[in-house]
Amino acid sequence: MSGVFRRLFRGGSKSKPDPPSFATPAARQGNWYAPKEGDESRFLGQDGTCALHLIPYRDGKGEDVLRLCEDATGLLLSPNDPRLPRIGILVSQLRGEAYRPDSGTAGNFAPGSPVKLVPEPENPADDSAVAVYDKTGRYHCGYLNKARARSYLKRVREGENLTAISVRGTGAGTACPQIAILATDPELLARLLGPRPEGAATPAHLRQ
Predict the structure, then answer these.
(1) Which domains does the chain have, with CATH numbers?
(2) Can you give the pLDDT at residue 31?
(3) For the chain, which terminal residue's Cβ has fewer other Cβ atoms within 10 angstroms, N or C?
């Protein structure tokens, strides 16, 4: 875990989380997302540990995804919240899926499924390209966007061990037009995927 993680996010459960169970929003009104301004200390609990968790969410198109949610407020975090890369959480909508529809369908990219990130320094189009494969390494579904690829490579060069999961996609055998991944330190990922603490605020989109 990097120095910033050791300062911000200590601890973390390593237990395997239960499969996500997706719920339909109770009502589509109000602001469900945390404001993007402010610093990353917002994401710390009173004990100094990460106060975010990944929760199942069904978006407006009916797709089942995982979204980061604040424990204290129940507000969701936008995948492109600028504070996330600063605390080491990389969320990337993939590019190039349209050129690999068979791989997207054949591989398991259901939310919560592990994926493999493979740098391609010899890629003639972009020597900072990072390819995304399913857990088996057989199905190449696309690439990290450029900004996230560069952040990922920088952290790997600095000696960090990162792991990644799908947060948007489908299981094997189902057409998968859109895939997004989240990559971070394994210890923090375990915490993000673990159960929300007792007393955590109800996610804003599920409130009556």
Answers:
(1) 3-206 (3.30.70.2330)
(2) 85
(3) C
